[in-house]
Amino acid sequence: MQEQQIASDIANSGIIGIVIIVVTLFLYFLPPFIAYRRKHNAFTGILIIDIFFGWTFIGWILCLVWAYGTNTAGNFPNRERV
User: Fold this and answer.
1) What pLDDT does 13 receive?
2) What is the pTM of this model?
3) Which of 12, 13, 33, 47 is the most buried (most CB within 10 A)?
4) Interatomic CA distance for residues 11 and 31, integer angstroms
């Protein structure tokens, strides 16, 4: 009986660990995702800064604010996105 409980605890902790990793990765890459969805002209820059400096939280906040900036393809109708 105790062995079944141990096996169940290990399985549950594995599932919880996977959920935590998925949620963390989603939050970490939220600024580039927002920039991509808004067709931000500096999407690549936001992605690179987020990858290298997002873990500092200040870098993540910077990328989030930058992603919500007005430098999007919709603000420049005569310009194609590169």
Assistant:
1) 76
2) 0.74
3) 47
4) 32
- Give CA–CA dist 63/39, Å, rounded: 15
Q: Which residues of 5-42 are buried (b: 16+ CB within 10 A; e: fewer)?
A: eeeeeeeeeeeeeeeeeeeeeeeebbbbebbeebebbe
Give the residue among 56, 58, 67 at the shortest CA–CA distance from 33.
67
DSSP codes of every residue in the chain? -HHHHHHHHHHHHHHHHHHHHHHHHHHHTHHHHHHHHTTBTTHHHHHHHHHHHGGGSHHHHHHHHHHTSS-BGGG-TTS---
What is the number of residues in the chain? Answer: 82
As given in the structure block, the two tokens for residue 17 are 């660990």
